[in-house]
Amino acid sequence: GLAWAIAYEIATSIKAMCVFATHFHELTALADQVDSVVNLHVTALASEDTLTMLYKVKPGVCDQSFGIHVAELVKFPSRVLQFARQKAAELEDYHVSHDGDGEGEGEG
After folding, report:
1. Of 4, 41, 55, 62, which one's alpha carbon is 20 to 30 angstroms from that of 26?
2. Whole-angstrom distance, CA of residue 91 vs CA of residue 59
3. Span between the terminal Cα atoms of the chain, in Å
4. Element (H or E) spanning 86, and its range?
């Protein structure tokens, strides 16, 4: 709610250049409503024990989040990681059931 309202105000009233780095995939839908809003993402390669940012900006929405992967790499407690995976699955299920097929665009 708040991030959407702020982004909308910046894009439609203030009309300033702004970058939002967010994990709220719902916010990316703003590009469908406001012509001046564009979705871009940074590409990365993830393996079991590394995350490599490729420093390439590409058009579209990123199809995955790296938060849990980064938390694993920096050794968050296993109970926190397990709960994070559970919540991520619940939110993905909610997103898919409320927004269609849930297929993402872009690269992760």
Report:
1. 55
2. 24
3. 25
4. helix 78-99
Please, which residues have CB within 8 angstroms of residue 98's CB and are 6 or more apart in sequence? none
Q: How many residues does the chain have?
A: 108
pLDDT tens for 48-84 read: 889 998 999 999 998 888 889 999 999 999 999 999 9
CA distances 35 to 17, 23, 31, 60, Å, are 13, 21, 7, 14
**Which stretches within the chain are classed as H helix?**
2-9, 30-33, 67-73, 78-99
pTM: 0.67
